[in-house]
Specification:
Blueprint: H1 3-15, H2 18-25, H3 29-43, E1 48-51, E2 54-57, H4 59-84, E3 91-97, H5 99-106, H6 110-116, E4 120-126, E5 140-143, E6 152-160, E7 162-167, H7 168-174, E8 187-191, H8 199-209, E9 215-219, H9 222-230, E10 235-239, H10 242-245, E11 249-257, E12 261-268, H11 275-300
Parallel strand pairs: 3-4, 3-5, 8-9, 8-10
Antiparallel strand pairs: 1-2, 5-12, 6-12, 7-10, 7-11
Helix pairs in contact: 1-2, 1-3, 1-4, 2-3
Length: 301
């Protein structure tokens, strides 16, 4: 089908009149009418019922109008993304991350992003399932492993370890274990080995469960583990970045930790020039720099 004819058809259907569509398109009524007739002939279908008060879409016309409306929306979206590479930071940004990192590290920091870019609209999608960036399920992702797709731009942000934490109140009441064998006297709070999580975390949990812990609470995400720990319920397996966020947490058995878990930021190649992506990427990098400084300050205190 002729794109120009489709554009003119859409304007006529939207306006309900050849004259009004012509005014919008800066074309004469006869020129608009010729284009519509040409489209109807190419489709061998009648697209409009014509009467004295204007034009009404036929069933075939409704089908085509639905298609051209969808096309226009996609073109508007593409146009906005193109403008986004040249104008101020604004509009929608769909960010995906894991529940733990998203709730415990990222979400509390977004106030700074909005303070700098108040016209940005972030859709934060937190789930363990890896969303497909090339298929545009999200614009940008923070993942706990390096993305495998070749058509993604990726940047390693930092490294996380899973460690053991408790509150001082819990340790005062129940004692501080000085080795893993002493965990038999404590309640372990962790994700189930069957829950979706990075391999390093699952390995550490399996190791902890080889010891005959007194009691066990499993939760399917780190936010839940943290809440239980903060209620003085036991010793939790948590990502090390929580210690920089909450001074109520005390590291237990500092030598017990998981292997390194790399954290990557990734986005599609087609969004390389996006101002929204650049703003979010720079914000995350700045926050990681600040986080590292805070962590070093706490360790040296």
């Amino acid at each position: 089908m002729d794109w120009d004819k489709l554009r003119i058809f859409h304007a006529v259907a939207d306006a309900g009149s050849l004259t009004h569509a012509g005014d919008k398109l800066n074309l004469s009524q006869s020129a608009v009418s010729r284009q519509v007739r040409g489209l109807e002939e190419s489709l061998n279908a009648t697209l409009f019922h014509r009467h004295a008060r204007g034009l009404i879409l036929t069933e075939q016309g409704e089908l085509l109008f639905d298609a051209t409306t969808a096309m226009n929306k996609r073109l508007d979206t593409a146009s906005a993304r193109i403008r986004d590479s040249e104008e101020e930071v604004f509009g929608d940004l769909r960010v995906t991350s894991t529940i733990g990192f998203g709730t415990l590290w990222l979400a509390p920091r977004l106030v700074k992003l909005y303070a700098k870019y108040p016209d940005l609209r972030v859709d934060l999608m937190l789930e363990e399932r890896v969303l497909d960036l090339p298929m545009r399920e999200a614009d940008v992702a923070i993942r706990m492993k390096e993305p495998s797709q070749a058509d993604l731009i990726r940047k390693r942000l930092m490294t996380v370890k899973m460690q053991l934490f408790a509150t001082q109140a819990y340790l005062d009441e129940n004692g501080v274990p000085d080795n893993l064998d002493a965990m038999v006297e404590h309640r372990l709070i962790c994700q189930s080995v069957n829950a979706t999580q990075v391999g390093a975390s699952s390995t550490l949990v399996k190791q902890m469960l080889t010891y005959d812990v007194r009691s066990l609470l499993t939760v399917n995400n780190y936010f839940g583990v943290l809440q239980a720990v903060l209620q003085d319920l036991g010793i939790g397996v948590l990502p090390d970045y929580v210690s920089a966020e909450d001074t109520r947490l005390v590291k237990v058995l500092p030598d017990v930790e998981s292997a390194d878990v790399p954290v990557f930021l990734a986005y599609p190649e087609e969004l390389r020039q996006s101002k929204r992506i650049a703003a979010f990427r720079d914000f995350v990098q700045e926050e990681i720099t600040a986080y590292r400084k805070a962590l070093r300050a706490r360790e040296n205190a």
